[in-house]
Write a structure and sequence with these properties.
Adenylosuccinate Synthetase, subunit A, domain 2, ten-stranded mixed β-sheet, 19% strand, 13 helices
Length: 441
């Protein structure tokens, strides 16, 4: 059955390869909308020999004619936005005429970055492991109802008054609590207002635009950042991001109702990774973990930090499926496991001798959990670029079939390489049919 709206959700702790899938599925989308996060997220797209890393602009921008929107759930750093636009336009990608940004986006400003960095430094070994790009403090201002939003930038006196007021508060904290240098309000106001005329043509009512797309029967792709296990409400709190990375964020972060979200595609690696601090029951701190990290090039697209690697965690994946209503799963980076003689799947946890089928809600308890593994034979043959499920090594097919059995959710897409074309599409989320779009065959 065809679907008009598809939501892409990271089903682990982020870095699952969402950018490639958004790029692939954009072929059948009229518009792509980003609904949460900020420039802490990095989506890596590979087509041929060219790699593109995007942080704010939706991954569908590489498709000519596709409209891209940034919803109100995103915290917006204007300098980073324009740096990204300039990078794309230097490659011949038309951006400005195809990009719309919600006027309700909270602006991420210099004092957010300063606060984020000094707070992490002050926590020392207890630091959460943020990217230091100001995301958390920007969302705190939003919830505290003191955000300066994009629409404020077009009224200079109002903008200056709001920035001055909020900086009185933040500079007091910086100087008297953290003993750090304050942010100069005059410099910040002048630098921000200098960007107003440049961003004005991009600002609009994203919620209205999305409703118009749907009214005309056009297809929409909703793109999230990070992963469901980093959701501020449902993730491994407090080792989480500061927004709702789960499917509900697609509605609140853009202005559409839940009934406008037809299909949820959860993206998961064939193994598990995590960046920064926080519990990770299946983490491998041995040669196998190092091999996975090396073969998977597991370094953050935004920060370059090495990712922690471990076996696929079915308990965590089942939780993501439950809280997101995931209809189908895409397994990425299957090829990373090609060299292994044995592959393992975590099918449960033990804590204090007791078996658990659901992850504990407290990060402290999850950190004490011991994984229960099921071992399967590896395939020790290349899966790179294979285009059909039947073309995969038999042991790889069995591995994927076992995952399906355990999570009771169909694996509809399998990624067998970094390139957009290295993909097995068993059921296309938009068309309901197997195969990638004709133009990519």
């Amino acid at each position: 059955m065809a679907n008009q709206s598809v939501v892409i959700i990271g089903a682990q702790w982020g870095d699952e390869g969402k950018g490639k899938l958004v790029d692939l599925l954009t072929e059948d989308a009229s518009a792509v909308v980003r609904f949460q996060g900020g420039h802490n997220a990095g989506h890596t797209l590979v087509l041929g020999d060219q790699k593109t890393v995007l942080h704010l602009i939706p991954s569908g921008i590489l498709h000519p004619g596709t409209h891209c929107l940034i919803g109100n759930g995103v915290v917006l750093s204007l300098p980073d936005l324009f740096q990204e636009i300039e990078m794309l336009e230097a490659r011949g990608v038309a951006v400005v005429e195809r990009l719309q940004i919600s006027k309700a986006c909270p602006l991420l400003l210099a004092y957010h970055v300063r606060l984020d960095q000094v707070r992490e430094q002050a926590k020392g070994q207890h630091a959460i492991g943020t990217t230091g790009r100001g995301i958390g403090p920007a969302y705190e201002d939003k919830i505290a109802r003191r955000s300066v939003r994009l629409e404020d930038l077009f009224f200079p006196d109002r903008f200056a008054a709001k920035v001055s007021e909020v900086l009185d508060f933040h500079n007091f904290v910086l100087q008297h609590y953290f003993k750090a240098q304050p942010v100069d309000p005059h410099q910040l106001i002048d630098e921000s207002l200098a960007l107003a005329d440049r961003v004005r043509p991009l600002a609009g009512d994203v919620a209205h635009s999305l409703h118009e797309y749907r009214r005309r029967g056009q297809t929409l792709l909703f793109e999230g950042a990070q992963g469901a296990l980093l959701d501020v409400d449902h993730g491994t709190y407090p080792f989480v991001t500061s927004s709702n990375t789960t499917v509900g964020g697609a509605a609140t972060g853009t202005g559409v109702g839940p009934n406008a979200l037809d299909y949820v595609l959860g993206i998961a690696k064939a193994y598990t990774t995590r960046v920064g601090s926080g519990p990770f029951p299946t983490e491998l701190q041995d040669e196998t973990g190092q091999l996975i990290a090396q073969r998977g090039n597991e370094f953050g697209a935004t920060t370059g930090r090495p990712r922690r690697c471990g076996w696929l965690d079915i308990v965590a994946l089942q939780r993501s499926i439950q809280i997101n209503g995931i209809n189908g799963i895409c397994i990425t980076k299957l090829d990373v496991l090609d060299a292994l003689e044995t592959v393992k799947i975590c099918v449960g946890y033990r804590i204090h001798g007791e078996s658990l089928s659901q992850p504990p809600s407290a990060a402290e308890e999850l950190a004490r959990c011991e994984p229960v593994y099921e071992s399967l034979p590896g395939w020790q043959a290349s899966t790179v670029g294979i285009k059909t499920f039947g073309g995969l090594p038999v042991a790889a097919q069995r591995y994927l079939n076992r995952i399906e059995e355990l999570v009771e959710t169909p694996i509809t897409i399998i990624s067998t390489g970094a390139d957009r074309r290295d993909t097995i599409v068993r059921i296309h989320p938009f068309t309901g049919r197997p195969g990638i779009p004709p133009s990519e065959n």
